[in-house]
Design goal:
By secondary structure, the protein is α/β, with parallel strands linked by helices. It has helices at 2-39, 47-74, 77-93, 112-131, 133-144, 151-175, 178-204, 208-214, 227-254, 259-278, 285-304, 311-335, 343-368, 374-388, 397-420, 485-492, 528-534, 542-545, 557-563, 589-598, 616-626, 656-659, 662-667, and strands at 426-434, 437-444, 453-458, 461-467, 500-504, 520-525, 549-554, 569-574, 599-608, 630-636, 647-653, 668-669. 56% of the residues lie in helices and 11% in strands.
Length: 693
């Protein structure tokens, strides 16, 4: 009976350790999309906002792991309990975690540092404390339960992290407003503090002589890890981290910048940790390497048939590539796990590798490269690690060196070609990369005078086209042709003289082709590189040739207009929603209130919604219904000889006379009824799943 009671007590104590680690991991990863969603609209809705957030999370995770390592190495157990509980109390005093609206940026410089400062002020200490939970509580578990492996707790920790990520877009975000999300998270931190307190008491109550005994690990006979193992502890997680951020960037750029598309890749990344660290039997080296190679073949196929893919297929291909890459990296990492007495330095190296990956993608890559090369670099690094970690004898001696050199040469050549390719008949003249992404200028059909033109692109989005020949040089092209929605709005709007026009999204300045003497056209552009390239006369001259008064405001359009007095626009053109990285904070009721403040009573708002993956039309019809606005849906066909693309525009206005114009009526399509079933978007609530094509 006494034996059963002792076993029950041990089981109960193990359960408390497991629950503490699970809760800490849950809170740690729940706060990531929560805080990211808070600050995303403050920095233009760019995918790089999340990349910067991930950099902060990874660096602070490294700090938490370093703290745990130093604490268990240099502080006696009772001192560890006192110090850690003191930090938790300090973290609770930092509540609430939601950033104050007064912290929004006031300048238009590089947002990386302001984002890091806001994150540090709002969640810095709580995140730091939670980051240390995994290695610290596992070490406390080893001290109080000698002889039991703690590594299963790491898999449990990642399970808690995964659950936090999965519940955010499906449960937390749809049903709780942002303030309520922060309040619920704060309650969770209080519960976590109580669980940590229990673990600290258990550590405090261990007799000092037993502490001394437990400090000598039961697997002391195992030698200290070698330098090669320690280097791989760093390189393997660094490669997986680069792949994680590269895939996240790609999905966010080509679909939308919303928490779900941050959560999905991170969830896949955590699943690889869970599988790998649960047991060695789940990682079969040959099988996962074969799956990785097949994933690369699928990726290459996706490049060729990108236009025919559904959003789900596009995301699935990249998610599978991420999973196979991370399984190879984390599987090899688990195979090289040390005895539990080296647990904290092992986890510290893993966190260091993750932080290095974050720094490489968020800071180093934009400085070194003028295009996105992180994904092919991660693929190359994974192949090199596959060869380095091969212990089967298949690749030995000089053959390993030869294969390694060959892979490096071929990989670097492929990366170089990818960085400069533009397609058949296309020459990439210049790439410009900054916080907001990569903008490219291309020359097309140089040897065909009738079609010779310059093109500006950002990812999969065309920012504009201008012909070189004098006959077509100043005609509006791309999505802005004369029969497009915005072209018809320009032609039939009232008045036709001394017009005031606002344009969100500069591109190459194509809409300036509609400007007349006496008009005012004000462009709002978040990316200063776009302005620089659009004003480079040797490629684009729309702005230079326009007789109207032109102004360019650099910064997020919503924030810029929020601080401006009413502009009395006759036409406000919203050209920020085509193809990739849709800034959804520009499609909420709060954003619409700002737009309506700036247009005249009979003014028009023209939305360009030629998106590949999202049904933004339904969102706009819902908003139009909410604000009692009339609408016209104009779809224009491609005309290659004119340089125009298929375009999709929605014109919103209270001007019934404009909507009744014969040409507007003739070209208007009839919306279905699907929009009636979707949610009204607000800053607190955006449901992307309802509009995913």
């Amino acid at each position: 009976m006494k034996k059963n009671t002792t076993e029950n007590r041990r089981w109960n104590s193990t359960g408390f350790y497991a629950l503490t680690i699970f809760m800490g991991a849950f809170l740690l990863f729940q706060i990531q999309p929560l805080i990211g969603k808070f600050i995303l609209p403050w920095f233009g809705g760019s995918p790089e906002v999340w990349t910067t957030c991930m950099l902060f999370f990874q660096v602070l995770l490294l700090g938490g792991y370093a703290y745990a390592h130093l604490l268990v190495t240099y502080v006696p157990p009772r001192g560890q309990a006192v110090v850690h509980i003191g930090l938790i109390i300090a973290a609770i005093l930092m509540l609430p975690i939601t950033p104050d609206v007064g912290w929004r940026p006031v300048n238009n410089g590089n947002p990386t540092w302001p984002i890091l400062v806001i994150l540090a002020r709002s969640i810095g200490l709580p995140y730091f404390v939670l980051s240390s939970t995994g290695p610290l509580i596992q070490r406390w578990f080893s001290q109080t339960r000698p002889g039991q492996s703690p590594y299963w707790l790491y898999a449990l920790s990642n399970t808690g992290s995964l659950l936090a990520l999965v519940t955010f877009p499906f449960i937390v975000e749809p049903f709780l407003r942002r303030k309520a999300q922060g309040d619920m998270w704060a309650i969770g931190l209080w519960i976590f503090a109580g669980l940590c307190g229990y673990c600290a008491v258990r550590l405090w109550n261990i007799p000092r002589d037993k502490n001394q005994k437990n400090s000598v690990d039961q697997d002391i006979s195992t030698g200290q890890p070698g330098k090669t193992d320690k280097l791989l502890w760093l390189m393997l997680p660094a490669t997986a981290s680069v792949m994680l951020l590269a895939v996240t960037n790609i999905i966010s750029q080509d679909v939308a910048t919303v928490p779900f598309f941050w959560v999905l890749p991170l969830s896949v990344y955590l699943v690889s940790f869970i599988i790998s660290f649960h047991s060695e039997r789940w990682y079969h080296r040959t099988g996962w390497i074969a799956a990785f190679i097949l994933a690369i073949i699928g990726l290459i196929g996706s490049w060729k048939y990108a236009k025919e893919e559904s959003a789900v297929m596009y995301i699935a291909i990249h998610a599978w590539l991420l999973l196979t890459c991370c399984m190879v990296c984390h599987g090899e990492l688990y195979k090289r796990r040390p005895p539990s007495r080296f647990l904290t330095p092992y986890y510290l190296m893993i966190a260091t590798g993750g932080a290095i990956g974050g720094i490489l993608v968020a800071i180093v890559a934009p400085l070194l490269f003028n295009t996105y090369l992180e994904l092919p670099i991660a693929l190359l690094a994974t192949f090199l690690l596959i060869f380095v970690t091969d212990n089967s004898g298949a690749i030995v001696g000089r053959r390993r060196v030869v294969w390694t050199v060959a892979i490096c040469v071929l990989g670097i050549a492929a990366i170089t070609i990818k960085g400069t390719r533009g397609g058949l008949g296309t020459n990439v003249i210049q790439n410009a990369r900054n916080f907001f992404g990569v903008v490219s200028v291309m020359e097309e059909d140089k040897h065909n005078p009738a079609m010779h033109r310059f093109v500006m692109r950002h990812g999969t989005t065309f920012h504009g086209v201008q012909f070189v020949g004098a006959q077509k040089h100043n005609q509006p092209t791309a999505y802005y042709g004369k029969t497009s929605g915005v072209g018809l709005a320009m032609k039939y709007m009232t008045p036709q003289t001394n017009r005031r026009i606002g344009v969100v999204g500069l591109g190459v300045g194509t809409l300036a082709a509609y400007g007349n003497t006496g008009d005012l056209i004000k462009f709002y552009e978040i990316n200063p590189e776009v302005q620089r390239l659009a004003q480079t006369d040797k490629w684009f001259t729309y702005l230079k040739d326009c007789p109207a008064e032109l102004k360019v405001v650099i910064g997020d359009a919503r924030l810029s207009m929020e601080t401006e007095p009413p502009q009395e626009y006759d036409l406000l053109v919203m050209d920020a929603f085509s193809s990739d990285a849709v800034p959804l904070h520009l499609l909420t009721t709060e954003a619409f209130e700002i737009y309506l403040k700036h247009i005249k009573t009979d003014g028009i708002i023209a939305f360009h919604v030629s998106t590949i993956h999202l049904d933004l039309q339904s969102v706009l019809w819902k908003l139009a219904d909410h604000f009692e606005l009339g609408h016209a849906w104009i779809i224009d066909d491609e005309a290659k000889e004119k340089g125009t693309f298929t375009s999709d525009w929605i014109l919103l206005t209270r001007n019934k006379k404009f909507l009744a114009t014969q040409q507007i009526q003739k070209n208007s399509a009839t919306p279905g009824t699907h929009w009636k079933n979707i949610d009204l978007w607000t800053d607190d609530h955006v449901n992307l799943f309802e509009i995913l094509k």
